[in-house]
Design a protein that fits this description.
single chain, about 250 residues, alpha/beta, Rossmann fold, seven-stranded parallel β-sheet, 7 strands, globular
Amino acid sequence: MSKLEGRVAVVTGAASGIGQAIAIAFAREGANIVVADRSDVTQAAVVLAAIAEVGAEALFVQTDVSDETSVNAMAAKALSHFGRVDILVNNAGIFTESLLENMPIEDWDHVLGVNLRGTFLCSRALVGQMLERGDGRIINIASQLGQIGGTSVAHYVASKAAVIGLTKALAREVAHRGVLVNAIAPGPIETPLLDSETEEWRNAKLAELPIRRFGTVDEVTPTAVLLASSDGSYYVGQTLGPNGGDVML
């Protein structure tokens, strides 16, 4: 039997990048997927088609994770359609660059609003029904930059470090009630987010990585499947790092 047979997963930011890959990987393991993304259904067509191709059901809900009303509406639609949500992957995130001395307050608020507030809002909206059943998984997508820092990305680093802290705090609140909360902190992964970096940055980062290459989304998804499935039943409040050696703990 597939590892996630009969389970229902909400994946935020699932229209592209790591979120898309996780949604498809979960579907291959038998889960039905709620694709929650700020893009429209046309932009989500690739992931929706891939989920259908493996025989799973997908529900697309356009969602702004930084907005409480939008998140609550997404949660209500997911629960109305599928009856429950077993797995939540808080993947939606944004990234901009600015030295802190020049950083517009709007940039700080926007990055923290999506990356941290969004994780909080989605978790709050769906953890209750998991606790009622005494079963559930929450997987927060952090970043290795939340562990080691980075230049010109103080707001992003702060948001991802806070996601790691939130993961530990929530895990302590709910693990004894059957809900396991963990995080994944990927290193630099070949996604549209990485494509926006300059060639100079890419070359410098490659020189820093012990493995001397960027990762692929398919090198992140096995960790997500592990944490979502029964194989991950003793992981609580952990931050797992498919990062090519950028962080060694």
